[in-house]
Amino acid sequence: MKVPGKGWEYMVYDALDRPVLVQDAVQRTRGEWAFTKYDAFGRVAYTGIFSHPTPGRVFWQNYASSVNHQYEVRVNPGVVRRGTLIYYTSRAFPNDFKQINTIYYYDDYAFDRAGLSVPTTVYGIATTTNVKSMATGVKERVLIAGTEKWITVFTGYDDKARPVYTANKNEYLNTTDTGRSKLDFSGRVLETTLHHTSNTTVSIVESFTYDHAFRLANRNNYLK
Fold first, then answer.
1. How far is the C-alpha of 196 from the C-alpha of 193, rounded, in Å?
2. Among 27, 32, 16, 31, which Cα is nearest to 92's?
3. Segment (H or E) for 156
4. How far apart are CA 98 and CA 31, in angstroms?
5. Most-buried pick from 28, 103, 124, 172 (CB within 10 A)?
6. Helices (H), the chain
7. Do 101 and 144 form a contact (C-beta atoms < 8 A)?
8. Which of 98, 107, 37 is closest to 69 using CA atoms?
9. Low-confidence residues of the chain, pLDDT below 70?
10. In angstroms, rounded to a whole number, what is the distance separating the alpha carbons of residues 202 and 177?
11. CA separation for the pair 143, 152 (Å, rounded)
12. Helix (H) and strand (E) counts in the chain
């Protein structure tokens, strides 16, 4: 693929026609590819950098089309791969790589949450542990040379599968952010409470009111 103002971008697809390797002109000079791995439902499991100076796209396309495994499965306990704790197998192409950059989790909270947890209630409403098919967490590498820090994000849901709680821990900045949402029966947000913790903790409460046509009428916020 050629984008105006850029060099050629190469792509390699698996047997299910999903992109598993992408390489731009800069990556080509380093012999690197950006890889994507999927789970059994076609959801992105994790991404990162695959490093191999040779051969070219045609070779890797033929190789990717011939491998037996097309997806990753969850494992517990987790496994350290290239210095990263991950709760997935590495059997689909590429099964070896330089580093992992992002990890996506679904269906449960059985992964490294960096000390974060889902509260049992949010605004007096119970959260659910039945999170099958839902996105539950993401881990993102901080892409700054010389660091091995991660940003961990996860989501909690009510019994109607609506997101009511989020937590974000940034190891690089040493900060933690949490958010709670109060919803009405139709899913509209009535109030949110956000907590930001670094050296000190700051809390912000926002409330929302709607008119008879369910349009946002007022939005108020204050420090708590």
1. 10
2. 16
3. strand 150-157
4. 11
5. 103
6. 25-30, 57-66
7. no
8. 37
9. none
10. 10
11. 14
12. 2, 16
